[in-house]
Specification:
alpha/beta; 14 helices; NTP-PPase_MazG-like_C; NTP pyrophosphohydrolase MazG-like domain-containing protein; 8 strands; MazG-like_dom; four-stranded mixed sheet; Glyas_Bleomycin-R_OHBP_Dase
Length: 394
Amino acid sequence: MAAPGTELERLVEIMRRLRAEGGCPWDREQDLRSLRPYLTEEAFEVLDEMDRVSDGGPWRPLCEELGDLLFQIVFHAQLAAELGEFTMADVCAAISDKITSRHPHVFGDQQVKGAEQVLANWAQLKAEERKKKTGRAGSVLDGVPTAAPSLLRAERLTEKASRIGFDWPDLAGVRGKLDEELRELDEAIASGGRDAIEHELGDVLFSLANLARFVKTPAEDALRMATRRFVSRFQYIEAKLHEEQVPFGGATLEHMERHWQAAKAVEKALPPPAHPPRASVATLRLAVPDVAAQRAFWDTVASWLGWAPTRSPEGTAAYTGAGLGLVFTPGAQAPAGSAVALTLEAPSPAAVGRLLELFRAHHPERLVAGASSAAGFQFADPAGLRWEYAAPPA
């Protein structure tokens, strides 16, 4: 598997080419303003995959979404580099320096007694950094984005305030404050004043976010998961009403409530998500009778696939692409007519078409007859190994 730095450099170079003369017209048109919605979208897609993993889903889609988010960071760094402001290397160096300086208990000789002291030290170090940059320590609340979701922002603000001692001594105090705010909300509702209701409802939500921090259950996450449960249960109701041929809008509240409770019972009957250790394939080693012939073929094909040759022991040939190492070692001939085909996932049907044309132009004898379509095709390498290049299902 290639080192992270190697793959990051490759991604930076891809971004540079996309923005360069003769690159991608769409990428060349973008600026900081036009990229804002994509950055936000990619961040939320990462959250979606994190939730699926929490429910016992696969990790690989999360890897892909993290890559999409990283691409946005590289894109922004490229825009800055074109203006001579900073580069991706500067981004990496800045965060490395920051994390190192804020962990003196790891990278220095400072001693800490626990996580609470780490957070207190972190707040002090940030204040010192701000003072060096601006000449003043600023507020301990600085750094929480105003555009962040409100529940998340409320929780982060109370967390930051707690780092200098502005906090309830225990959970009972937080819970009591919530009861107080609920009583005030009831009074506002009774009065009928719209402004008063908005004010008191905001205080209740803020108190809930603070309570969530105390019980170490982020309010934003809890609400997002509750929303997912609501969608799942409501769609269960819709499916049952459809099976019963109830006209749209024709069900009574009591009828829907029965299905709602049934949906909750189904949820409780499901086993908790299991997270067994998952092993990923890092390197695929294949024995071939003629490594030299294999290398001559794969040096070209690897470049078409966007892979890179890597250093390997003498007498072998190695390539890296998409997080997978492929190594050919001396060995026996592959079984003739083997039904096994190793699948390489194409990013799109268009990519399938482009690679197929390259094979037709340069290696037509390697194409497997009757195994080509718009969705994918198969080819055999000099060792007789069969490979399939196909786009994922739509």
